[in-house]
Amino acid sequence: MRCKDIERLIIASTWKDLSREELLLIKEHTQQCAQCTLFQSEYKNLRLSLKNNPAPALPEKLDRSTYKICRKALNLQKKSAPAIPPLIWGVLAVLIALSVILFVPVFRDLILNEPLSSQALFVLTFLIQNTVMLFFTPILIKNFREKKQGLNIFS
Ligand SMILES: [Zn+2]
User: Fold this and answer.
1) Quick check: 57 pLDDT over 90?
2) Does pTM top 0.70 for this prediction?
C-alpha cells in the first residue's frame, strides 16, 4: 500500500471504525515508514488541540441583535393571538344576568324542599342549558380564532 492510502485510512479512522485488516495495514506500514508515523502522530495532536479549544464565542453585537430579533418574533406571536371576541362576552353577560334574575325568585322553592313550580322547572332548564353553552364556548372561541387567522378549512 502506498503512503497516500495509509494517510487516507488514518484520516478515515477519525469518523468511522476501521476493519481489523485496515488497522493491521496501518500498523504494519507505520512500523516501516517514518513519514507515515509522523503523519499519524501529528494528525492525532492536531485533532486533540482542536478538541481542547473552546468553541469561538459569538460577537457581542451579533449576539445582542439575534436576541432582539427572537424577542420581537415572540412578542409578535403573543399579540397575534386574538382576544375573546366581544360577541362571546356579550352573550355570556346576558346569559349570566338572565340566570341571576330568573333564579332569585325560585331560590326559595328549592331550599324549602317543596314540589317544584313550573317556573322553577323552567329556570332549572335554563340554567342547565347555560351550563352546556359554557362548555361549548371554548369551541366557539377556537373556531373564531381559526377563521380570523384564515386557517379554518370549513370556511
Ligand atoms: Zn508511508
Assistant:
1) no
2) no
**19 CA from centroid of ligand 1 (Å):** 19
Query: Which residue intervals of 53-85 are DSSP H helices?
Result: 60-80
Q: Which amino acid is present at 53?
A: N
Residue 56 predicted with pLDDT over 80:
no
Digit-coded pLDDT (tens) for 131-146: 888 788 888 878 877 7
123: number of CA atoms within 13 Å, CB side? 20
Give the phi and the psi of residue 129 in degrees, each rounded to 5: -60, -45
C-alpha cell at 74: 415572540
Quote the ligand 1 centre to 60 CA distance (angstroms): 46
Distance 49 CA to ligand 1 centre (A): 24
* Distance from residue 10's CA to the centre of ligand 1 (Å): 11
Report domain extents, the chain: 3-52, 82-148
